Amino acid sequence: MTDNGRFGLGSFLARITSAHNRGIALDLTLETLADGKALAMQSEMHDLSWYSAVYRNNDNAKRLEKYMTGVGMRGLSSEWWHFQDDATREAIKLNTYLSKGVDASGWTRDDQGWRWRNESGVPQKNTSITVDGVRWTLDSNGYVVE
In principle, which of 11, 14, 52, 100 could form an S-S bond with 18, CB 3.0–4.6 Å? Predict the structure, then answer.
């Protein structure tokens, strides 16, 4: 579980209250109606390896993602099974966003704005980056300049 020190209990247990505890996040999979068996995904649920990353989604995981994002939920790039209701999170004024996961790179957001992290999880600062064909400028704190 700890992957030679990369993850500790704090990576899996909330120090205060998690989005799951507050009722705005859930972990789920799809089952067949006929026999209630779970559809095959690219990994087991809560397998915190690179196999769980969303970019590896198989057809069943893509279907789950389509259903959940279609109703306004947002996923976590490292867990095909995790979805969170950020609209409710904002409505009740929680100041935490999804940022932990197996895939350290990508967009993160806090009360000050959006940041891009490299593969090591380090926010990029004082630079311009291109993500999915879009050019972004990042300030001295790593936040997107509007």
Answer: 14
DSSP state of 61: H
DSSP state of 22: T
d(CA 122, CA 103): 12
Q: What is the pLDDT of residues 16-34, one digit of tens each?
A: 566 777 788 899 999 999 9
Using CB atoms within 10 Å of the CB of residue 87, give its burial: 0 to 12 exposed, 13 to 18 middle, 19+ buried.
exposed
Considering only CA atoms, which of 65, 67, 70 is closest in space to residue 80?
65
Kindly report, residue by residue over 68-107, the tens digit of the pLDDT: 999 999 888 889 999 988 888 777 776 555 444 444 457 7
- Which residue type is seen at 54? V
> Is 83:73 a contact under the CB 8 Å cutoff?
yes
Cα separation, 49 vs 1, in Å, equals 9
